[in-house]
Specification:
Layout lengths: L4 H26 L5 H19 L3 H21 L5 H22 L7 H6 L7 H20 L1 H9 L1 H6 L4 H23 L4 H12 L6 H26 L3 H19 L1 H6 L16
């Protein structure tokens, strides 16, 4: 199955993106901001359309739109002007509306538009792969450099600020990295589904452990399993790969939710990683 060049590219891209989104999703879920991925992903549609309209690289235009949307959502909610869900809804709608507008100004038919909306991991080109690899390298390096600070601020933002950690900077840095990570994955699973791949691995991992080291490792493991297994299943039975990956991830999450040892032991909501001691290792 993986002898074909396009399958090899799909596998490498899937591995990179699954690890990237799983690690980012760990911080997103800890901060209880899972829905922000939906807003950023849909805002990226405006960037995709603008790239086609102006004839510039789509990754560049979508990245600008996504980062602007992520930072915009963070800024208006951080300053207490409106609630986060309201801000997400506004940027979500604005990005999609701009995308429709830009597409109406573009003459002709955009052949690869569906791949950005619904994903087409099997259509990943060598250029796409290099872009994904470069983005993943940059994001993972920054996460590694600021890992302890990001972890501390994710557990308790007020305590982090009191300890001298630049919590505000880290908040906006995380939003920017999440935005870039989402854009990197759009070609693989699509604008509509990418937010699920951001949240599902970490949400599943939280059903099995409260120790952040284990949660992070399990999140990456689940993300890899979803992507590789979903890619293989979609190839064998000829169904859309992005949808297969997300459906498989959802099924594993629901199964984990049903048999979670944490739920059986404590009888409360498993998303209690915030209460775990930040010094505990996996």
């Amino acid at each position: 199955m993986f002898q074909a060049a396009f399958m090899q590219r799909a596998l490498i891209a899937g591995v990179l993106v699954s690890i990237l989104l799983s690690v980012l999703g760990f911080f997103v879920v800890l901060r209880r901001m899972s829905f922000i991925g939906v807003g950023i992903a849909h805002a990226a549609f405006g960037g995709v359309a603008l790239g086609h309209l102006l004839g510039i690289p789509v990754f560049l235009s979508a990245s600008v739109f996504s980062v602007a949307a992520g930072l915009g959502i963070g800024a208006v909610t951080r300053r207490g002007r409106i609630k986060e869900d309201t801000a997400i809804g506004i940027f979500f709608a604005a990005g999609m509306a701009l995308g429709v507008l830009f597409l109406s100004l573009k003459p002709g038919y955009i052949t690869d538009l569906a791949s950005y909306l619904f994903g087409s991991i099997l259509a990943v080109t060598p250029t796409d792969l290099w872009i994904i690899a470069a983005a993943a390298f940059l994001i993972l390096v920054l996460l590694a450099l600021f890992f302890k600070e990001l972890l501390a601020s994710s557990f308790d933002a007020e305590l982090a600020r009191a300890s001298g950690i630049p919590e505000g900077f880290l908040f906006y840095l995380l939003l920017g990295l999440v935005s870039l990570g989402i854009v990197s994955a759009i070609k693989l699973v699509g604008i509509i589904l990418v937010s699920a791949l951001l949240v599902l691995p970490a949400a599943t991992a939280l059903q099995w452990s409260e120790r952040y080291g284990r949660v992070l490792a399990l999140s990456a493991l689940f993300g890899l399993a979803y992507t590789v297994s979903g890619l293989a299943i979609s190839y064998w039975i000829d169904i859309p790969s992005g949808a297969t990956i997300v459906i498989l991830g959802t099924a594993v999450f629901l199964l984990s939710l049903a048999i979670s040892p944490l739920r059986r032991r404590k009888g409360n909501h498993p998303d209690r990683t915030r209460s775990a001691q930040s010094g505990t290792t996996g």
